[in-house]
Amino acid sequence: MTTHLPVCAACLLATLLVAPLAAQQAPAPTSPRPSPKDTEVWEPEPVVVTPGASNEAAPSDAIVLFGGKNLDEWVNVKGGGPAGWTVADGVFTVDKPVGNIQTKRSFTNYQLHLEWRVPATITGKDQGRGNSGLFLASTGGGDAGYELQILDSYNNRTYANGQAGSLYKQAIPLANAMRKPGEWNAYDVIWTAPTFNSDGSVRTRARVTVLHNGVLIQNNYELTGETRYIGAPTYKAHGATPIKLQAHGDPSEPLSFRNIWLRELK
How would DSSP label each residue in 120-143? Predict the structure, then answer.
């Protein structure tokens, strides 16, 4: 026997069968089309810094620590009087009996450019040949602080973590980029000072990147403490510090420096 549905019931059944199919075929809503402007950042705008006439020259925002005329930016570590090293012909030369000198100003994070030269007549060997040190942060008298070694390492063998470009007795340089005696060397340094908690414990360690004559020799190295002649590196809490140059007691002829400038970094 054939069963006939009422017309309204047939229409309702057809609607129920077709609706799910229609829902499946309905187009999904489209998201906005990506634009290059979505990832453009316009603020803050970087500050304008006028570079020097050459890569070695001080840029417009630099603090010139030695420009060839005097050592007014430096003092003697012992007593804080005049630096006392010899200035002549646009350079200054270590006076070993006078002792170490350091900047009058104190710094935290910075970019530093410094040029140094051992004399062409240099004598001696190992650590007794053109020895000095650039203390990236001086934390006291003598050799207290973090030392980037200065030494004549041109055909002069010594322990690898004490040659030119080493973080003294802590980090061997990645390369020996030394120029021969009588020629100028350049260090370009990015220094990030350590930070400390209120109880004196280390919050973040010091880090340093160094280029020697344009060659990367320390790559964001994280120091395990202040450099030490004897014993393991250790930290002691400090804030902003001077930069120090060492008058080493070795018997070789004294080094000279020129063209030193610094940019403070936040």
Answer: TT----GGGSS-EEEEEEE-SSTT
